[in-house]
Design goal:
single chain; 0% helix; Laminin; binds calcium ion; 30 strands; metal-binding; EGF-like domain; Jelly Rolls; 367 residues; five-stranded mixed beta sheet; disordered N terminus
């Protein structure tokens, strides 16, 4: 089927007609073409092609009444209210533009053409013939937005484009940003370093990371952030885009964002989750932290009279042991028994496993 329009016989009265053209290509011409066009006629073509394409339009014939700034008869090419071209006449002058070899390209997939004639066509101008076709938009190279179309790689094809990610990343369901899987790690050592992925290079977008730190009961985790800290923030709203949070039992620290590190955090817990959320835009360097586990502190025990203890320290913490013994001539008496040594342990709750024993003078004559 031809996409050519049937000539529209409009002659005497002012008439406005709208014609819709769709498909990958087509042509249009002035009423009665190749005969002279009628007077007092308006004809409007709306051309659209599928999404992902733009329209290229050019004229193979053009012959219209010349007038100053094309005020009598003209052809106007518009898109979304913007005039792309206004043509009239038979040759180029200072005030009249003819299409000649010019190719008009629509920014998107639609275009409209308006033909208008005034009250006379006595010179019998023949009008115009124009052709259009859909051409692919190279989305990967036509980046008008500030944000990149694709986070990592952009692939153009006819009628569309798609994004892909560098090795190790996954394409988010937005089909644009590249996220990471970052929630499997459990840190069980008593100290360690963790950081945002790729730190200090910008962290991945659209990601939700959970880092668990689990140490034995009786230890308390302390977290110190690195001075290099850069998490996307907002001047008026608290961390609406990206944030770091620390959950320790029922306590929560944060959200943290901006360029100032949170400093030292004493969690009082042996079980901590570091949560990091990033949205789909921005390039920020991220964060790094060092954690250390310190045991519960036991009170320094009093040395019993004539007693000795080993080791002597200014402080004792969870898992430390003390061995009590007595000076020569004395023995430990604990729960009615004489012993050479007696061990106590600093427990998870910060108490000793037993009270300190006594030293009793050994009296061989009574034995
Ligand atoms: Ca005219
Ligand atoms: Ca394309
Ligand atoms: Ca962000």
């Amino acid at each position: 089927m031809s996409l050519l329009l049937a000539p529209l016989l409009v002659s005497v009265v002012v008439d406005a007609q709208l014609v819709s053209l769709a498909g990958m290509y087509g042509s249009l011409h002035s009423p009665n073409f190749p005969e002279p066009y009628p007077r007092e006629t308006e004809l409007h073509w709306n051309i659209s092609v599928p999404d992902g394409f733009q329209i290229k339009l050019y004229f193979s014939h053009f012959d219209m009444e010349p007038s100053y700034l094309c005020e009598y008869d003209y052809v106007k090419v518009e898109t979304e209210g913007e005039v792309l071209a206004l043509f009239c006449g038979t040759q180029e002058t200072d005030t009249e533009v003819v299409p000649a070899q010019q190719v008009i390209t629509s920014p998107r997939n639609s275009l409209s053409v308006l033909f208008s004639s005034d009250f006379s066509n006595e010179e019998r101008y023949s009008g115009f013939m124009a052709h259009y076709s859909a051409v692919d938009i190279d989305e990967c190279n036509d980046r008008s937005d500030e944000d990149l179309l694709c986070d990592h790689f952009c692939h153009n094809y006819i009628g569309g484009y798609y994004c892909s990610c560098r090795y190790g990343y996954l394409l988010h369901t937005d089909n644009r940003t590249c996220r990471v899987e970052c929630s499997d790690a459990v840190f069980r050592e008593r100290s360690g370093i963790l950081s945002s992925v790729d730190f200090p290079a910008p962290y991945p977008k659209s990601s939700e990371c959970l880092y668990r730190i689990e140490v034995e009961l009786g230890f308390r985790l302390r977290i110190q952030f690195d001075p290099t800290f850069d998490v996307e923030d907002h001047p008026d709203v608290i961390c609406p885009y990206d944030y770091v949070k620390i959950r320790a039992g029922s306590r929560e620290f944060g959200p943290f964002c901006g360029d100032q590190p949170p400093g030292l955090i004493e969690t009082d817990s042996n079980n901590v989750t570091v949560i990091f959320h990033s949205d789909n835009s921005g390039e920020n360097l991220g964060w790094s932290l060092t954690y250390t586990a310190t045991g519960s502190q036991c009170p320094v025990p009093e040395i019993p009279p004539n007693g000795l203890l080993n080791p002597v320290q200014s402080g004792y913490s969870f898992k430390d042991h003390i061995l009590f013994s007595c000076e020569p001539g004395y023995r430990i008496l604990k729960d009615g028994e004489f012993l050479d040594h007696f061990q106590v342990d600093c427990q998870a709750d910060g108490s000793w496993s037993s009270s300190a024993p006594q030293c009793q003078k050994t009296d061989s004559t009574r034995r």
